[in-house]
């Protein structure tokens, strides 16, 4: 979600955008159960797993758009939205890596970026700052990954559709990974400037 004038923000919890974000969070364990079903000798439920990912992507688009249109941007929403994004990325990494659809080194790259962000947020918290807003590069990275992961899941098969899904899926994941790291570096630079200015003020 974008930054909005504090005068137009709301303190309400149960707004439509927040409910959409909560629903996305509830979908995370459902997705994991569906995508890992074949690993535990269960039936293949990839179609349902894909549906959950698609619905997550749609709700991710809608919650921010509706929050801005209806003046329902809230502090809770600004936490729920990126939290849901990260949990879906992490759960998809777990599922696709366990299924051996995604190589371990891609997973390691993305997890290393998450670790870097966690350290940065911890440093901000120790200095009394709230986490910074998600930048546009970060949102673009998330969108690329959220497009790429379902396509890679779809590529776990045979035929022309699976081949095309692999090509486009890897393109999205490649760009998404690069943008994910770029957004992380921009975040660290921004935090460094804030802390440097804070130290200078002291």
From TrEMBL:
Q: Which residues cross the membrane?
A: 12-36, 104-124, 136-154, 160-189
A single Gene Ontology CC annotation of this entry is: membrane
Tell where it localizes: Membrane
In terms of InterPro entries, this protein maps to: CDP-alcohol_PTase-I (IPR050324), CDP-OH_P_trans (IPR000462), CDP-OH_PTrfase_TM_dom (IPR043130), CDP_ALCOHOL_P_TRANSF_CS (IPR048254), Phosphatidylglycerol_P_synth (IPR004570)
Alphabetically ordered keywords of this record: Lipid biosynthesis, Lipid metabolism, Membrane, Phospholipid biosynthesis, Phospholipid metabolism, Transferase, Transmembrane, Transmembrane helix
GO BP terms: namely:
glycerophospholipid biosynthetic process
Which molecular function GO terms apply here? CDP-diacylglycerol-glycerol-3-phosphate 3-phosphatidyltransferase activity
Among its keywords, does the record have Membrane?
yes
Pfam (any one): CDP-OH_P_transf
The way this protein sits in the membrane is described as: Multi-pass membrane protein
Which coarse location class describes where this protein primarily resides?
membrane
Q: Which family does it belong to?
A: Belongs to the CDP-alcohol phosphatidyltransferase class-I family.
Q: What is this protein called?
A: CDP-alcohol phosphatidyltransferase
Q: Which source organism does the UniProt entry give?
A: Streptomyces xiamenensis
């Amino acid at each position: 979600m974008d930054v909005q004038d504090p005068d137009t923000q709301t303190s309400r919890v149960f707004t439509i955008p927040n409910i959409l974000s909560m629903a996305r969070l509830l979908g995370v364990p459902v997705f994991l159960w569906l995508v890992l079903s074949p690993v535990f000798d269960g039936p293949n439920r990839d179609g349902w797993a894909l549906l959950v990912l698609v619905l997550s992507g749609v709700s991710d688009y809608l919650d921010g758009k509706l929050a801005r249109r209806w003046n329902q941007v809230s502090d809770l929403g600004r936490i729920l939205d990126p939290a849901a994004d990260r949990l879906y990325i992490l759960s998809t990494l777990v599922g696709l890596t366990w299924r051996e659809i995604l190589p371990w080194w891609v997973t390691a790259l993305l997890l290393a970026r998450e670790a870097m962000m966690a350290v940065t947020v911890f440093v901000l918290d120790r200095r009394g700052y709230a986490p910074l807003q998600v930048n546009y590069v970060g949102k673009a990275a998330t969108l690329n990954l959220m497009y790429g992961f379902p396509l890679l899941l779809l590529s776990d098969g045979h035929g022309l559709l699976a081949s095309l899904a692999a090509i486009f899926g890897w393109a999205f994941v490649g760009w998404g990974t690069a943008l994910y790291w770029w957004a992380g570096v921009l975040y660290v630079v921004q935090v460094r400037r804030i802390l440097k200015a804070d130290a200078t003020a002291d």
